Amino acid sequence: MLVGAHVSPAGGVPNALERGEEKGCEAIQIFNQNPRAWKPREYPEDEVGAFREAFGPSPVQALLIHAVYLLNCASEDPEIREKSLRSLISSLDAGARLGAHAVVLHPGSALLGGDAKAAIPRAGATIKEALDATEGCDLHLEDTAGAGGTLGRTFEELAALLDAAGGGGRLGICLDSCHLLASGYDVRTPESLGEVVDEFDRVVGLDRLGSLHFNDSQTPLGSNRDRHANVGEGELGDEGAAAWVREPRFAGLPCVIETQGPDKKGPSAGEVAKLKQFRDGPG
Fold first, then answer.
1. Catalytic residue among 66, 97, 153, 208
2. Read out DSSP for 21-60?
3. pLDDT the model gives residue 283
4. Mean of pLDDT values over 200-210
5. Is 163 tagged catalytic?
6. Would residue 101 show up in a list of annotated catalytic residues for this protein?
7. Domain extents for the chain?
8. pLDDT tens digits, residue range 117-149?
């Protein structure tokens, strides 16, 4: 497993690589644009070139781009869906230019009280259109904690989303430990996590698993609340963290931390080191 963290690309994406290296990351994740605005960010050639040049010899081996949270590919509002499409295309284009491992996307929401079965085809159509308009970068749909009308709260919904989006080879899944626990999947021990991964393989297929997030959870199993806790400080604890990074079927995948960190400035070097120690220590 390539352990790392979400980092800021402020001042240019090469700075994100530097920040990741300072934290001891083997993988990093960034937003490719301001997460609170629709306006896409254009990457000039010199910035892309500088990133690629620095990335080659870097200990950071994988870049993930997280599409911004404003996107709702399942929206019933045509304007929101069009904005989501354009933003997703921009993320995939940025991923292709920067050589990203994948773009990670929250699939969308039917909103509170909405019909998830009707929303899945809408989300799938938007996602397929974005994939058809781009090339060279994979897209990983992230499982959700299940609050409100969010899509992807179960493996069955993730499988349905993949089918609705065309099921192409660029489509994959990003599993988040906090979201899994909150949506009712017990990933707190090696044994229970193994059973969850078995179920994922039956329903979705391990060939679709492309990336991971490790976040501890402030809320208990089945809470349907997405509240990240720092590594080892929530419901998963150190045992859950160790189980996650030692799961043999996760080997080789990029796994990033998305916590507030001890100083509330994002994941810390200490959290990255802790996960790497669990991964590399005796089983």
1. 66
2. HHTT-SEEEEESS-TT--PPPP--HHHHHHHHHHHTTSS-
3. 63
4. 98
5. no
6. no
7. 2-280
8. 899 999 999 999 999 999 999 999 999 998 888
